[in-house]
Each structure stands twice: as structure tokens, then as C-alpha cells.
Amino acid sequence: MKGSGIISGNGDEQSTLVVVFLRGGADGLTLVPPVGNSDYYKVRPTLAVAEKDILKLGDANCGLNPAFSGLYNIYREGGLTVAPGVGSNDETRSHFYAQDLMEHGGQLAGGWLGRFLRYREGKPPSALSAVALGKSMPEVLRGAPAATVMESLDTFSLGSGSGPTESLQTELGALYGAKENILGTAARDTLEALGRVERLRREDLPPENGAEYRDDSFANGLRQTARLIRARVGLEAVSIDLNGWDSHFAQSSLISPLMTRLSEGLAAFHRDLGKLMNAVTVVVMTEFGRRVAENSSFGTDHGRGGSMLVMGGTERGNVLGEMPVIETGILVGPGDVPVVTDYRDVLRPILARHGAGGAMGKIFPEN
């Protein structure tokens, strides 16, 4: 089996949580800029988003970057929640340490998404419950009962890819078909789901509802995710990264195209799935934000508070909390955005809707 697990079914009653990690510390004040804040413009003479261009979120004291026009349409339709001033209680400025802490849910073993899959209520997890789209297993999925790493459906198959896959499936079906035990049930689910994936690969149907994806790795990952969700192979959790947000130098030219990729990719995914988005939640997060003031290289340095986005599921187009007050005298540390919302407080109700139930204390134990 290519990847790190065998696939399985159990997809008729499914909901899917997609975690998009913006690695590099995305600047929350550019993604979600403040509205009506004069100090913001004083300390960011070249990087501040012009107030006339900010996509206003009702009467909230923040808005969306104009590069997020696709996401803004989803917000107005009631499918996006924006959370400014989000972060964790650690003060590290190390990308790798901060990412580990956030993906683990604190100083804990394994990832919070892996613990969710292990302890959440309901049916036992299938071997295709979790997929990491990329080349390696992310920390957030460590400890999951089963997780598969793949770059695309084309690289995922039973066997080495050169052998008689169809014959092997037939033989396995005959071997396990009559077994009335847990192993037999799991094997039959696996083979059924494998058949669905094989049909997906052969048919390669276009996106639905007029959706058009960009031709880049992030958008292609979202398209693969939509195909798996539609095929009902039991997919419960997906991890996908969008890298490159460490903007110490020339920030505008660096992250403007990334914001466009993020917005257009998620908008295409939302359109593609249509009504299926009612059972799908997308969480966009990053390890930390940036400092309020721009530096001498027209960039920003590592900070604290960032922002999160939540799309789909039962979201109803709102702003969670408020943009922290951006005033020079009350900033955190060397000039950081204060953290007013812990990222785990954003995740808890989402995981509850996806079946965490009484397992929340194991997913995010108090420490």
C-alpha cells in the first residue's frame, strides 16, 4: 500500500474537518486588518492595508484583506467566521517549536487531531479517516489510529503500482468475504473504499457547480480532498499546508500571492462541494502572528496574536471576539498583537460538532 495506511470505508455518515496550516507565521494584521485604528497606519507606513480597501465585516472593528474577495463572498453568504487576535499562551518566537506546540495542543504527546480521531465518540475510525496531503506526516495527526500521507490520488494504490492491483483486490475479497468478525468487516470496508478510489482515479470527473481550481499544489490538494469527500470513503480529517508566510523582508510582494492562492483555493473548494459543505469544516491557522510595526526591510518580525478562519459546517458569517486594541503603550512584549482568544477555544466547539463529545478532556487536557 502506498502511503502510510490501508484505506477503509464507513463513509455513509460522515463529516470532515480540514485543517489548513499557514506555516511561517502569517501576519494577522494583513490577513485581518483593523478598521478605524490610526496607530496601525502610524507604525505601518508602507504595509498597512488602506482602510478604503478593507473588506468590512459588518460593524466589527476588523475586516478582510482585499485579496480575500472569494472568502468575503462566502462570509456574506453566511459560511465564514473570522477570529482576530488568536494565539497560544506560549511566548516562543521559534517557528518549529511554536508549530509543534500548536499542533500538539500544548506540551503533550501526539497531535490534537490525532487524539480527536482516537478518542472521539461514534463508530471506530477507518484507516482512511485521516489524510495528510503532502510528503510527510504533520504533527497534528501524530497518534491517530490510522493516517495516510499522499500527494494525490494518482500516487495512492494497493500494492507497488506495477502489479496486478485488480487481481489482488479480487483475491483479498475472496479471502475475507466470508469472515464474520472484526477483521472481515474491516477488510470488506477497505476493499469497498478502495474500489471507490479506483473509480475516482479512472473517471477523474471535473469539479462540480462550476468550480475552477488554480493549478498549484494547494488548490490541487483541496480538489483531491473534495473528490474523496464526495466518494464517501470515511474521510474525517485532512491536513494540508500552505507554506511561505515568514515575511521579514518585502512582505507585500511575498504574501500577497499567498493570500490570493488561499482565498481562491478555498472559494473553489466551497463551490465544488456545494451542499456537502454543511458537513465539512475548514480551519485555517498559523503558529503565531507578527509584530505590529513594520521593520526597516519592509517586513514584519515574529510576534504573538494572529488570526484564524473557519469555513463551512454550521458557521454563520460572523466575527469571533474583537480585534485587540492596537496602541503602542499596551502592546505585548517588543510590540506584539495581544492574544485575546486561545486557538483551542476556537477549535473546541468545532471538534464538539464533529463528535468529540466527552473526549474533549483527552483532546485538550487542562495543563
Description:
It is a single chain. The protein is α/β, with parallel strands linked by helices and 367 residues long. The protein has one domain. The protein is 34% helix and 14% strand. Strand 2 and strand 3 form a beta hairpin. Helix 6 (165-176) runs antiparallel to helix 7 and helix 8 runs parallel beside helix 9. The two termini are 39 Å apart. Residues 1-12 and 158-164 have low confidence and may be disordered.
For the termini, the CA-CA separation is 39 Å
Whole-angstrom Rg: 21 Å
- Average pLDDT reading: 86
Q: How many strands?
A: 11
Percent of residues in beta strands? 5-15%
Query: What gross morphology would you assign?
Result: globular
Percent in helix: 25-40%
The domain count comes to: 1
Low-confidence stretches: 1-12, 158-164
Helices, by number, come to 11
SSE ordering: EHHEEHEHHEEHHHEHEEEEHH
User: What kind of sheet is the major sheet?
Assistant: 9 strands, mixed
Structural class by helix and strand composition? alpha/beta
Keywords, separated by commas or semicolons:
367 residues, alpha/beta, 9-stranded mixed beta sheet, two-stranded antiparallel sheet, 11 helices, globular, disordered N terminus
